[in-house]
Amino acid sequence: MKVWKPALVLMMAGLSGQVMAANCSVEISSNDAMQFDKTSISVPQSCKQFTVKLKHSGKMAKNIMGHNWVLTKTADMQGVASDGIAAGLDKSYLKAGDARVIAHTKVIGGGESDTISFAPSKLKAGEAYSFFCSFPGHSGIMKGTVQVTK
Predict the structure, then answer these.
(1) Which of 58, 78, 133, 149 is an S-S bond match for 32, by CB 3.0 to 4.6 Å?
(2) The CATH number of the domain where 117 resides is what?
(3) What is the DSSP letter of 63?
(4) Domains identified in the chain, total number
(5) Residue 49, CB-side half-sphere exposure with 13 Å CA sphere
(6) Could you tell me which residues are beta bridge partners of residue 72?
């Protein structure tokens, strides 16, 4: 019986590590109906990096129904979306060097995906954060909240 205890401890430690890693990433799907499949994301401050994988499950091209994932403070969301329109598709509808943007993927079309990682240390507990699609006209519908957790 004592032989199994170390093995059990090692097994549990391994499982614990897998659970922690799963909490440091999220996969979000977007579609041709201008929808994300999530409206809320929790980002643990304990993660060194948090990874967002954006998938486009639709069929339309990125110049017609493209989507990206952009993270900002909630107060900055509308300004970033408005200022990004002039930047165009090639710059993922984000103004170059916009310090209000914490993280973002590129604009993707149907069947494509993109992944971005950022340090949760950039986020402050108690601050309101949002994610959205900056493709013109999408941010009013395609958005959600980001909570910083301990």
Answers:
(1) 58
(2) 2.60.40.420
(3) H
(4) 1
(5) 7
(6) 130
